[in-house]
Write a structure and sequence with these properties.
By secondary structure, the protein is mainly alpha-helical. The chain contains six helices and five strands. The longest helix is centred in the N-terminal third of the chain and has 40 residues.
């Protein structure tokens, strides 16, 4: 009996010591080491790839955001603020999902097939809106001018980038709304277009938040008469 109690006590003691050692290693030392390495070598990425403007954090370069007008009384669907470059549609997991309007609760695609009637209607409606919103008195768009990313959400539903073609499509509208020349707005797009990663991976892309920050700086300078 005494031997049995003694063996049990030794086993419990060994288990508790192992638990303590592993807790310190896995729960304290390892997280601190990983955090220290990340903060030292990848500080910006470790802190959410934040983008700042005028000394304030305005978003992340990894997550898209919308640019809408304030909701009017009785209005439930926001109207895009056409002074700014607009991101891809934020359907995400669908209009009944918590992932609408780029809310960071879920990430995913609509999972609708190309033959789905709801998806076809969404694309047609989005294309008609794109043509209407981005046509100006001197620049008229046709359906063939609208790239795919202008009317479909990304696989994550949160993509912060648009194609250069979609950015170019918006140039005339943004220039007209901000009373800036088309050439100056086009230059902003060109300056904020990133090429393929390592020169061969992915596609050229434009980060909408960074582009709109550059646009705001341009229009603020013009407004100040500089």
């Amino acid at each position: 009996m005494n031997n049995s109690v003694g063996n049990t006590a030794r086993l419990l003691g060994a288990g508790l010591r192992a638990l303590l050692v592993l807790t310190v290693i896995c729960g304290v030392l390892y997280p601190l080491t990983v955090t220290g390495v990340a903060q030292t070598l990848f500080h910006a990425k470790a802190n959410g790839s934040e983008i700042t403007s005028d000394g304030k954090v305005v978003g992340s370069e990894l997550i898209a955001q919308r640019y809408d007008l304030p909701l009017e009384k009785g209005q439930t669907t926001p109207t895009p603020d056409l002074r700014w470059f607009q991101p891809r549609p934020s359907n995400g997991l669908g209009e009944n999902s918590v992932n609408t309007q780029y809310k960071l609760l879920l990430s995913g695609a609509t999972n609708l097939s190309g033959a789905n009637k709801d998806l076809i209607k969404q694309v047609r409606d989005a294309k008609a809106a794109i043509i209407k919103d981005n046509s100006t008195a001197t620049h008229r768009l046709t359906p063939s001018d609208v790239p795919a990313d202008a009317v479909t959400s990304s696989g994550s539903g949160l993509d912060p980038h648009i194609s250069p073609a979609y950015a170019d499509l918006q140039v005339h509208r943004v220039a007209e709304r901000n009373h800036v020349s088309v050439a100056r707005v086009q230059k902003l797009v060109d300056e904020n277009t990133d090429g393929r990663s390592l020169g061969f991976m992915g596609e050229p892309r434009v980060n909408v938040l960074r582009l709109n920050i550059a646009l705001r700086e341009l229009t603020t300078r013009d407004g100040d008469g500089s």
